[in-house]
Amino acid sequence: MKIDDYRLLINLKDYRTIRATAKKVLISQPAITQRLKYVEETLGGKIFLRTPKQLVPTSFGEVVLEHAVNVIKNEEALRNRLALTNSSISGTLSIGASSLFSQYFLPEVLRVFTEKYPDVTVDLVTGVSEEIRQSAEDFHVCVIRGEPLNEFECDRLFSDPLHLFDTYPLKKGEERPFIEFKSDPGFQRLIENWMSSQKQIRFRRSMKVDHFETAKQMMKRGLGMTVLPESISLTEMDTCAHIPLVEGNRSYTRETWICRKEVISQLPQVDAFLKEIMGKDWTLGG
Predict the structure, then answer these.
(1) Where are the domains of the chain?
(2) Which one of 28, 35, 224, 249 is most buried, by most CB atoms within 10 A?
(3) What is the per-residue DSSP string for 207-219?
(4) Which residues contact 212 (CB under 8 A, 6 or more apart)?
(5) What's domain 3-80's architecture?
(6) What is the pLDDT of residue 236?
(7) Domain 84-159+255-278 belongs in CATH node 3.40.190.290
(8) Are 95 and 125 within 8 A, CB to CB?
(9) Given this structure, which CATH class describes domain 160-252?
(10) Mean pLDDT of the region 60-75
């Protein structure tokens, strides 16, 4: 069996359905089904029971999955040890990053980094910050929004003020549709706390979209108001009505953090990436 087979088994266990796994790893459902059948025939037993709602590991499968986890860990440990013995900067750099950071900031960072270190292979996973948090142990480096990770070394990259935007004047007492977008629970709580403190602005919660960029585009077409971070809406601040999210003397912001385990920083490719990203001027608008 290949390392990728073990990774597939772990993904099937984590995402619980072939459909969800296919969506996450970008492999077709028939290909995953065929590969799982091959693995089960090779090992001589059923790894999962197929129920109408999810895959359930069998007792046979639990033994295989435990072994799969150990195989992946040993493979990563070997690669890390080999990287430490190599004087040149090479190997694999695994990054988990929030969707917002990945869309607006990470491409340029990676362009510069890969030009400097062409022998480094970058493995990248993006998602809402909560998804990255849950999988933090799988990455060399995580870039998340909100609160820093517990038991990780974390450095703040920048603080991102939040604003309420609309194409219509934000008049007192006037009700407008509010466009929400999928985010992590921390961001949702922050927005809920601010909205509950507002007595002058009336929100009609009628739209919920999958992505902050979708919310921004719908707002720009006059369909309602939405809350956006300043870092991705500098142009809209010149063209749309907006107010900062404040309550008393408190400004509502989202912090962006880069996190890693201390021992991982010793890897040359990780150390080089940390120096690259932390050496950048993250002043908003700069």
Answers:
(1) 3-80, 84-159+255-278, 160-252
(2) 224
(3) EEES-HHHHHHHH
(4) 99, 100, 181, 183, 228, 229, 232
(5) Orthogonal Bundle (1.10)
(6) 92
(7) yes
(8) yes
(9) alpha beta
(10) 92
CA distances from 260 to 81, 115, 162, 263 (A): 17, 23, 26, 8
Closest CA to 141 of 176, 166, 109: 109
Q: Any long-range contacts for 271-276 (C-beta under 8 Å, 24+ apart)?
A: 272/89, 272/113, 272/116, 272/117, 272/120, 273/93, 273/95, 273/113, 273/140, 273/141, 274/141, 276/109, 276/112, 276/113, 276/116
pTM of the model: 0.70
Residues whose CB is less than 8 angstroms from the CB of residue 191 and which lie 6 or more positions away in sequence, other chains included: 180, 227
State which amino acid sits at residue 118. Answer: P
Question: In the predicted model, is pLDDT for residue 284 greater than 70?
Answer: no
Query: Residue 127: is it exposed, middle or buried by C-beta count within 10 angstroms (0-12/13-18/19+)?
Result: middle
Tell me, yes or no, if the two domains 84-159+255-278 and 160-252 fold the same way: yes
pLDDT score recorded for residue 139: 93
Instruction: Note whether 143 and 106 are within 8 A (CB).
Output: yes
- Token pair, residue 9, equals 């088994």
The alpha carbon of residue 212 and the mean position of all alpha carbons in its chain are separated, in whole angstroms, by: 13
